[in-house]
Amino acid sequence: MMMLVSFLAGGFIGVMGMALLVAARINEN
């Protein structure tokens, strides 16, 4: 159960990180 929770949390953090990188790249232009 804990592994599933940590896996979901890691995926959520990864998606948020990617969204922040895309937003920063858009703001640069």
TrEMBL record:
Highest rank taxon of the organism: Bacteria
Record protein name field: DUF3789 domain-containing protein
Organism of derivation: Weissella cibaria
